[in-house]
């Protein structure tokens, strides 16, 4: 897996502009919801994604990079996680 750089400078998770709750659904639902949120978000907005599907915790950061957004943080266990993205 490629190294993923995370820049948390100036980000407060309470400041999320868009929240995506993917707790429960399995692939590909979380990734689809993240793509929708990225399309909806304006440049600079923060998207907070919560989920429980282990594979999505790995797939979403790779997709964020491919979609030219910024991965701010990945926190939690494989079965209960939070990912913060800046568009």
Core attributes:
single chain; 87 residues; alpha+beta; Translation Initiation Factor IF3; 4 strands; 30% strand; globular
The gist of it:
This protein has two helices and four strands.
Please provide a written account of the structure:
Helix content is 29%, strand content 30%. It is an alpha+beta fold and 87 residues long. It has one domain (13-86): TusA-like domain (Translation Initiation Factor IF3, 2-Layer Sandwich). A four-stranded mixed sheet has the order 1-2-4-3, covered by helices on one side. Helix 1 (29-40) runs parallel beside helix 2 (54-66). It is globular and about 30 Å long.
The profile of the biggest β sheet is: 4 strands, mixed
Number of domains: 1
The CATH fourth-level homologous superfamily: TusA-like domain
Percentage of residues in strands:
25-35%
* Shape, principal axes of CA atoms: globular
N-to-C span: 23 Å
SSE map:
Elements: E1 18-22, H1 29-40, E2 46-51, H2 54-66, E3 70-77, E4 80-86
Parallel strand pairs: 1-2
Antiparallel strand pairs: 2-4, 3-4
Helix pairs in contact: 1-2
